[in-house]
Amino acid sequence: MRAVAFVGFKKSGKTTTVEAVAKVLKERGHRVAIAKSMHADFDRENSDTWRFSRVADSVIVRANDTDALLFKSKDINALFSMVNADFLLLEGFKSIKHVPKVICAKNEDEVEELNDGLAIAVSGVIAGEGVEEINGLPVIDATRDPEKLADLVEKRAFMLPNIDCGMCGFTCGEMARMIVAGEKTLKDCVVLSSKPKVTVKIDGQVLPMKGWVQELVEKTIKGMLSAMKGYREGRKIEIVIRED
Fold this sequence. Notes:
Elements: E1 2-7, H1 14-27, E2 32-36, H2 48-55, E3 58-62, E4 67-71, H3 76-80, E5 87-91, E6 101-104, H4 108-114, E7 119-123, E8 133-134, E9 137-138, H5 146-156, H6 172-181, H7 190-193, E10 201-202, E11 205-206, H8 211-225
Helix pairs in contact: 1-5
């Protein structure tokens, strides 16, 4: 799964930009997921779902207009592991460091403030003012030319494991900035480029694991299975756990 974060301050055009890009990607046959970061409580205090969430691990909501699963993930990796899509478009998530970003801004000062070395383009309100480039970043108006911005997302979107394993000699944030700058590629990420000895998938999505975690899982599973009648060494062991 590839990802891009659309970051910006309030009223900068983030939602409009994400909507336009998502529509084009969907029309091109891609599976598209959108994640939105909000600075307000999603579940109103003392509502039915709020009360249920106090006593349950997750709450499923069936409404006239949509279905929803409410739960609290331990971290951003756990949240994204729930997604099964070709492209994940993030609205907000300014602090995220392992995906490239499109800056949505009202003026050049906001672009300067938000550019942390992960920006691949500028869009939003400022793109409607006829500006073509800011500090080497292309300015693309998603309302007038969504195909051009979608082209850029298709070409440059990526998502690193965000586990800071150190096997490449850098943090995921440092590697992401070098990939955006053209100094590295995804092949330089050891976790993504190497064939892991142990692979765990949740609903088709690979769960990134550091080398020592892979070794721990391998030894634990083999140790448990070795005590069972009929166990033998093999080149590949497959275990599937279904919740249905």
